[in-house]
Specification:
There is one protein chain. This protein is an alpha/beta fold. Helix content is 41%, strand content 16%. The protein folds into two domains: 1-33, no CATH class; 35-226, Rossmann fold.
Amino acid sequence: MVKTLNPVSKAVYTLIKDGSLKTGIFDKKMFSVYPFQFSPQQLIFLTQCVEQVAEVDGCCAEVGCNRGYTTAFLNRFMAESGLKKPYFAIDTFSGFIADHVDHEVEARGKSESIRFKMADNKKTWFDRSMEVTGIDGLTAIQADAATFDYASIGPIAFCLLDVDLYVPIAEALPDIFENVAPGGIIVVDDCAPDQAWDGALQAYDEFVAARNLPHDVRHHKLGVIEKPAGA
C-alpha cells in the first residue's frame, strides 16, 4: 500500500522540498536516495559474508550502526534468505567517545571537526526506525564498543565493526575475535589509507600482524578477518 500525505502535510513537504531545490539547505534529507556509506559491491560482499556463516554457530553483530541503514538492509536480506540468527546492533547512539577523538586529534593529527560526527542520534530514534521499517528480532544495545563485553552475546558468527576510530577498534578487536566461533568472520570498515577514518586501518593492520593472520582488504576498505576452524 502506498502511503499518501494529508493536504496540509503535503503542502508543507512541497514547500520545504521546493525551498531546498532553490537553496540546497536540505538537499541530503530531501533528495538523497542512496543513504548507505557502503558501495553496492561492498553491500553485496557483506551479504556474502552473512551467507558464508549460515552454518557457523553464533549471532550476527553490527558494532557501530549509527542511523541503522545497513542494519535494516542486512536484516531484510537475512529475512528474505531464511537466515535465522540473533542480530545485535551496538552503538553509543550519541556519537564518538571523547577520549577516542582526543587520540585521533592529538596522536594522529586529525581535525577537531570529527568530534561532532554522528552525534545527532538517539537510541530511541534508532529503535523507532527499526520498528517503522518492520525489522523484528533485533536487539539494540547502547554501549562503548571499546569496553563492551562481547562474551555476553557470544558466540559470534559474523561481526561488522564500523566505529571509525583507532582506539575503539584496537580495543574491541581482541575481545570480538576471542568470541567469534571457528569459521566466523569479522569485517572492519574504513580500512583505507589517507582518509579521515584511517585509524581503522591502523588498528586492523596491527591486529592481523600480531596474530599472523592474512591482511585481506576487500572492495577498497573492508578489512576481513576469518577465524580459522579449530582456533
